[in-house]
Amino acid sequence: MDHRSDFTEPYKLLYVGALRHRKGADQLVEFLEQYNTQFDPPVELTVVGAGVAKTHLKRAAASHGVENNIRIEGHVPYEKLPALYAEHDLFVYLGRWDEPFGRVFLEALCTGTPVFATNVGAVAEIVGEAGYVTDKTDIRELAEELRLVLNSQTLGQMSDRTTENLFPYEPNQVIDQFDCLYRTLV
User: Fold this and answer.
1) How much is the pTM?
2) pLDDT tens, 133-164?
3) Are 144 and 39 in contact (CB under 8 A)?
4) Crossing angle of the two packed helices 28-38 and 139-149, in degrees rounded to 10
5) Helix, strand and coil in the chain, % to nearest 5
């Protein structure tokens, strides 16, 4: 699906995934608050997913004063996700554990949506130049890092690079690799 946002203010961020501690979902509200109190203009965040942190996120948004800048969607049917990715300027992932392979990164890239993520697991390899991967873990520092990429030019350039990062994950590439691997095991 072609990217639909025009990378203009206010920037629209998106998180898709399980609402769990290991995925960093519990940090999203504080991350949003830190960014919006430090920098202008404020950003908007859409959170898609189900899990134990959903109730926490709603309460935290109200207590941190960002309830007008966050939309907590809960579960969204898979067939509606591409349009959601394409409408946002940046996919954010504040994961804490070594994500072995996050399908959400490929989903974002397939719609031309750049990625901002913490450097865990295979994220940097998947995202490459089509996003920004940081070793920072402190929420204040993450907000400062986000500021580095939130401009139309940078987001547009990263979006333009999404296609090149998808090539290694195309079915014909992956199938050949699995075939080769299975032949070495037999």
Assistant:
1) 0.92
2) 999 999 999 999 999 999 999 999 999 999 88
3) no
4) 60
5) 50, 15, 35
